[in-house]
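FW: tagging you since you asked about this chain on Friday. Here's the raw sequence from the shared folder, copied in full. Didn't touch anything.
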Amino acid sequence: MKSLSLMILLWQKIKNSMLFEKAYARVNFKSLRVDIKNLPSSFENFTIVHLSDLHVNAKTPLYALEELVDKINELEIDMVALTGDLFDTNPARIRAQLERLSHIKHPVYFVSGNHDLLFTCKELAREIEMLGFTLLDNRFITLKRGDEALQLVGLSDAFSRYFGIKRDPKKLFSELDAKIPSILLAHQPKDIRLTQTFAIDLQLSGHTHGGQIYPFGYIVRLFQPYLQGLHVKNKTQICVTTGYGSWGFDFRFRTPSEVVILKLTKGEHAEH
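HL: got it, structure written out here
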């Protein structure tokens, strides 16, 4: 009984500490500057909100999504990159939650995560269209500002083949204009291995949750090259966000949630 009481006391102290974060308890913004060597002058200070891993299910509180949308809408940004795992249940069960997310006023570009494919594989394109977002799975678009451009590329989740989805990154990347900067949206950080022979300047990924609960991050690192933050692999930079939601457990420990604000600037980055 004494051991049980000590365990309960310890758990209460952890829950009340700054290291513990209840799922969807707050919106933590993190700002990063990303230098891109050949960034056109018209895209200087182009600003992206990198959002990932909402894991919306029937228990996701509406007020949390409303706060998230309100805070994003207050920002002076150019777009939102939503890098997967939006859905964590059948969409029919979360209509109220999805309705809140549809009020994001900025352009939202979305790529699928493994949970999205699991719960909405056949309906994903229709659901994303209903939200007013742009589905980028296995295609790219070119953003234009006058005569200058920026390419947004998307890959469906790395587990696509298990859902009957064929992705051909070599063919997709070969269609890009190497003279135009390219940003890749891919749910899993390990997809950076696909970029090394192509002109991808920046990859945006989620999936890891930063480990979500310490020390699980050490296990995640067995499967993913990066856990969180901004890194460089050869000529490609990669930003991995810990994400906004949670999965499995409705809390985080020593790995806060985050929404990343990326500002693009013309400059050199150090190659690792």
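FW: The two ends are 53 Å apart (CA to CA).
HL: agreed, and Residues 56 and 87 are 5 Å apart (CA to CA).
FW: great, closing this out.
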